[in-house]
Design brief:
With 248 residues, this protein is mainly beta. It contains three helices and eleven strands. A ten-stranded antiparallel beta barrel has the order 1-2-3-4-5-6-7-9-10-11.
Length: 248
């Protein structure tokens, strides 16, 4: 069953790559359970972005997080995209019984992106194929609720995240443009497999803008400024507090 789930994620990820100015990050999903525990998580988001998440629990029931990612694209891609995101956050966690894990997290970050493409654009006055480029700088902040089941070899759960964008700059071919969706609903499912210090992880979710923010936008603008996007990722989790124990 685990192999089938991972295979499906790989197949989907090979065909998913968002063209939108806003590209959602994979959720930060620490499963620390006590003071002094930490996690380092590396991930690949849809075969288009590499990311790393850090989590540390300085006090029981308290976790601090950090995350960063950057896009992987060739300059021959059409559309061509560059993007990066960094964020800091934190929150609370608790165990309910022996296997049910509950956490509430928040984060605030800095992000920038550029999307450029050659094509026939309905938004341009000149006929024919033209180069169109969107540039954006924004501050994403989010709130997240996570419910997970912790098993011996396999853990998993679901989360609901709400993300807002504080857009600092948005241009199209150098001129200011409006219409960027600034509120996104982002639920996801996740799975972890493996024991002790090393674990694999997989995430499957979606990001959907507030429907009201799509009103009045042409279809092409919706694609770049208010798009629905799949979040598909996989990677590796390292738990340093367990690594130290293995060497003692």
């Amino acid at each position: 069953m685990r192999q089938i789930f991972v295979f499906v994620l790989v197949a989907l990820a090979s065909g998913v790559s968002s063209c939108a100015v806003y590209s959602p990050e994979l959720p930060v999903l620490p499963l620390v359970q006590d003071r002094g525990q930490s996690e380092v998580q590396g991930n690949m988001n849809g075969f288009s972005k590499l990311g790393m998440d850090l989590a540390y629990s300085p006090l029981k029931h308290v976790v601090l997080t950090g995350a960063g990612s950057f896009g992987l694209h060739s300059r021959t891609d059409n559309p061509y995209r560059t993007r990066y995101t960094t964020s800091l956050g934190g929150g609370l966690y608790t165990m309910v019984g022996k296997a049910l894990y509950l956490s509430v997290l928040g984060s605030y970050g800095i992000a920038a992106s550029r999307v450029s493409y050659n094509g026939y654009s309905a938004l341009d006055t000149l006929p024919g194929q033209v180069l169109t480029e969107y540039r954006a700088a924004y501050r994403p902040y989010s709130g997240q609720l996570c419910l997970a089941f912790l098993g011996e070899g396999v853990s998993g759960g679901l989360l609901v995240r709400q993300t807002w964008l504080d857009v600092r700059r948005l241009t199209r071919n150098g001129g200011p443009v409006g219409g960027q969706a600034t509120e996104y609903f982002e639920p996801a499912l996740f799975l972890r497999f493996g024991r002790r210090a090393w674990q694999g992880h997989a995430t499957l979710g979606f990001s959907s803008p507030n429907a009201n923010m799509r009103l009045g936008l042409q279809r092409e603008e919706q694609r770049y400024l208010a798009a629905n996007t799949l979040m598909i990722g996989m990677g590796l989790v390292v738990r340093p507090h367990l690594l130290r124990k293995s060497f003692q």
